[in-house]
Specification:
The protein is of the alpha+beta class. Strands 8, 9, 10, 11, 12, 13, 14, 15, 16 and 17 form a 10-stranded antiparallel β-sheet that branches. Strand 21 (544-560) and strand 22 form a beta hairpin. The N and C termini lie far apart (64 Å).
Length: 614
């Protein structure tokens, strides 16, 4: 029996809420001065075949449940002793955020939606309130209680129960939206005979790779996972392939300077970077990959020119496979297994669990090669991959630049605007590059590219499908900011169909596309100030607030808790709080359409100004 669950913990009040996968109503179990549901909670938790789904449950909710069961707290006669012990355990878990509850100890099967979407990663972290904003949940309100406060009356209790119920409904909504990810993990767990139910994509990839590598090395997987190659430092001149060469001084200088760099373990950030301009394109080198971009502008095919996009097939995996380099402790057998995975993936159609599982097994190794907790760790392997990847792509750019105008170079591929008369020459040079590097290029065409910079662009394919990035992105990853999606939607209509921005925005009726999210750090607080006659009324806001630009409403400010620092959010702009979405005619919302039009104009103007440089 599968239930969504969430806990609320205070020093004198404990609430466990559960919502069945298809249930109409939630169940609540309370332990407090007012009520003691210990006996029936115990019966509920000992149900046969009970499975629990939560958000961040393996890091917080389940360790509390496990503690309650291990300590026999549900058999205690003193509710206040129980709530206090649970409260202390909760604080212990919160204060030791680095700890992780081992899944092999779990007594009630858990599905943690935060983990499978990798939202527990520091660089991609998202709270349940963030997810509620993304999935367009009607109510994204936070509790206005201090977590260390004492629950004083029935009014407080009712607020907590309603808050918990809202989070249960939101988590269930997210559960159903995660069906594809959940079924993938079930399928791959069965195929590889390893528990991947709560694994994020990189972890799944590593587990699949390990299942294939360990037998070839003749060791058990647990032993493989203990292995690493530790290096105090790496000389980049020892990493660069000897056959890399450039014809122009611009790139020859980059290569020469790169060979002089020493990278120390644990201090890779910013240890190597370079920047050059070649044929109107600014190229930036760094451990994150090569990035190059022409001036902002609109570039499109015509009767004389085409835009060709060329990407290296499985670039980083094939660099290692073809050049036979590997994490030192894994020996050359690593390359054999890597190549087998690459070949095996071709056997499965795209979109199948098998194809996707092998894809993440191929692509996840580079990211793990500088992870201190990974069996792939070898700093030199990581550096050989990224340095040579950038140098070889720069070689391609240098060789073809004279044939047209390179628009972008981005980690594993390039886009070039080229006269039709030079296309055959371009492909011939690409073939020579492929033969030289033993890598393969996949080619395609764009009808049009709208570029603000290397991280913000819109590419329109021959079949009118689009690829959007940055300020043009509509279908964003969960951890990204989904605020005012009306802007990229209006820009897309403007650049693909010629629809005026004002016309699109003022005829758009999905209010969620106008909403913005304000997230405040723990050392700040936010408030909205309403001007009422000659008076100003201040209303404190929660850590996460949903709002929109309006022609009435108040002004939002952020204040630092330990000082007098105050800053305006959307300076001189009136806003309306919308933590609770209510259906009503757009005309009654007083949306400040001009605000959103100005946001679009900023991007359009930046592109137009860049075009003037050409």
């Amino acid at each position: 029996m599968l239930n969504i669950y969430d806990l609320e913990v205070f020093s004198n009040f404990f609430l466990a809420g559960f919502l069945g996968k298809n249930a109409e109503k939630s169940q609540f179990f309370e332990i407090s001065d007012w009520k003691d549901d210990s006996k029936i909670l115990k019966e509920f938790l000992h149900q046969e075949n009970l499975k629990l789904v939560g958000y961040n449950c393996l890091a917080y909710d389940y360790p509390i449940i496990h503690y309650i069961l291990e300590m026999g707290l549900l058999d205690q006669k003193d509710p206040m002793l129980v709530t206090n012990m649970i409260y202390n355990k909760s604080n212990e878990i919160i204060n030791d955020s680095s700890s992780s509850f081992p899944e092999w100890k779990v007594k009630i099967p858990q599905l943690d939606l935060m983990k499978i979407h990798h939202l527990d990663n520091k660089s991609k972290s998202a709270t349940l309130k963030d997810i509620e904003f993304v999935i367009r949940h009607d109510n994204v309100e936070d509790l206005d209680f201090d977590p260390h406060s004492i629950i004083l009356d029935d009014g407080d209790r009712d607020k907590i129960i309603l808050y918990n119920e809202n989070d249960l409904v939101a988590t269930r909504k997210f559960y159903f939206k995660s069906t594809k990810e959940i079924e993938l993990r079930k399928s791959l767990s069965k195929k590889y005979r390893v528990n991947l139910i709560n694994a994020n994509d990189p972890k799944m990839g590593a587990e699949i790779f390990a299942s294939k590598l360990a037998p070839k090395l003749g060791i058990p997987i647990w032993e493989l996972k203990k292995q690493q190659t530790e290096r105090n430092l790496v000389l980049l001149k020892e990493c660069i392939f000897p056959y890399i060469n450039f014809k122009t001084k611009t790139f020859q200088d980059v290569l020469k300077k790169t060979k002089e760099v020493i990278v120390y373990d644990g201090d890779t950030k910013g240890a190597w970077k370079d920047e050059v301009i070649f044929n109107k394109v600014k190229y930036k080198f760094g451990f994150g990959g090569l990035h190059g971009c022409i001036y902002p502008g609109i570039y499109q095919e015509d009767e004389n020119n085409v835009i060709v996009s060329s990407d290296v097939t499985s670039y980083y995996p094939n660099l290692a496979i073809k050049n036979r380099f590997y994490p030192a402790h894994l020996t050359s057998i690593y390359c054999d297994v890597y190549e087998n995975i690459f070949d095996e993936r071709k056997m499965y159609p795209k979109g199948t669990p098998e194809n996707y599982g092998l894809k993440i097994a191929l692509n996840g190794t580079f990211g793990k090669s500088n992870d201190k907790y990974s069996f792939f760790k070898d700093l030199k392997y990581m550096l050989r991959t990224t340095i040579n990847g950038q140098m070889l792509l720069a070689m391609l750019c240098e060789r073809v630049a004279h044939l047209g105008q390179i628009l972008m170079a981005n980690t594993d591929g390039i886009e070039i605007l080229i006269p039709k008369s030079n296309v055959e020459k371009y492909y011939n040079i690409c073939k020579k590059w492929e033969k030289f590097t033993r890598l393969e290029l996949e080619h395609g065409n764009y009808k049009k590219m709208v570029i603000r910079d290397v991280n913000n662009y819109l590419a329109i394919k021959e079949n009118d499908d689009t690829y959007e990035k940055g300020c043009f992105e509509i279908n964003k990853l969960l951890w990204k900011d989904h605020s005012m999606l009306i802007v990229p939607k209006a820009l897309k209509a403007y650049y693909t169909k010629g629809t005026p921005v004002q016309e699109f925005i003022r005829n758009h009726n999905d209010m969620f596309d106008f909403y913005m999210k304000l997230k405040i750090r723990s050392n700040f607080k936010a408030e909205i100030r309403y001007v009422v006659g000659e008076n100003i009324n201040n209303v404190q806001l929660s850590k996460t607030t949903r709002y929109y630009a309006s022609t009435n409403g108040g002004y939002i400010f952020r204040n630092k808790l330990d000082g007098d620092t105050t800053s305006a959010i959307k300076k001189n702009q009136r806003c309306t709080i919308a933590n609770r979405h209510v259906d009503m005619p757009m005309s009654d919302r007083h949306v400040d359409y001009q605000f959103y039009e100005r946001e679009c104009s900023k991007i359009i103007n930046a592109i137009d100004q860049g075009q003037l440089k050409l």
